[in-house]
Sequence to fold (344 residues):
Amino acid sequence: MSLLIINPIEFPRWNESLRSLPGHSFFHTASWAKTLQISYGYQPYYFTLWEGGRLSALLPCMGIVSRLTGKRGVCLPFTDYCEPIVSDAAQFPEMFAAAVDFGNKRKWKYLEIRGGESFSPKEEPSEWHYGHTLDLTVGPQKILSGLRDSTRRNILKAEKAGIEITVTATPEALKVFCRLNDLTRRDHGLPPQPSHFFRNVQDQILSQEMGFVVLASSGGTAIAANIYFCHGDQLIYKYGASDTVGRDLRANNLVMWEAIKSGRERGHSALCFGRTEPQNEGLRQFKAGWGGRERIIKYYRYGLPTGTFIKAPVISKPVYQQIFSKLPTPVLKLLGSILYRHMG
Fold:
């Protein structure tokens, strides 16, 4: 068995190689790696073990070099979760040791793994989030019967209001999403992701049939939209946006319901709702209302200078969110284009 550090973007048929690894997700693909690399300049370093020409274990990582936030390795930036994958538990220490040695040579502050609790059961996580997963194999009728009553009523309300749904992967649909995303991020006191990031999502993911956009319209105007990524049997809810004008129509609920039905028709067996911060109880309840299984996603930071696991710093989000929520959208978009590559 040999250990190789590779760049999946340059590795022939990387996505096909993943098929030998049970438990891999969209986030392990070369498509996501390339989207992050060309959008933010991160360098992929995927620590892999091979046996007989077959991929046996994987610890994906990207190096971030920033004058604002320092040098570090992250598995993976802007990714809800990215579990290390092994066929034997003994493989993880070998890959982890290689990543630590690699990071020390590049003077990383830390190595962050987004997932991997089973490999570090005694270590305190640097942070944690909620995750929700819905089984799609049972079919729409059983899923519908398992919804929270309020979720089911909201779907019916949106249908009665005549909300129109479009499931597509066109550049035009993504532009509509971006308009709604600008509004939503401003409402939350956050700058939107850079425009070039979503252009790369279109080129590397949506146009390659690895994702789609679900739009909800009222009176010919889009009022809600979600972006979903897919690979293998898994569908992932990645980004959501809406206009406050139409939120009383519960268009968000109908968008999710149509995505569930579309995902099932496309052959996906599970819908992952991404991560939810512990303090965002409203979003947690929205996701829990679909009847999926809730779990805890733990992140681990290994401080390279100290050789110990460390806690992530607690940031007072409300302070800057209150300021950002009062800024004009063009200013927020400019901030997003400058800051995101440093955040990772």
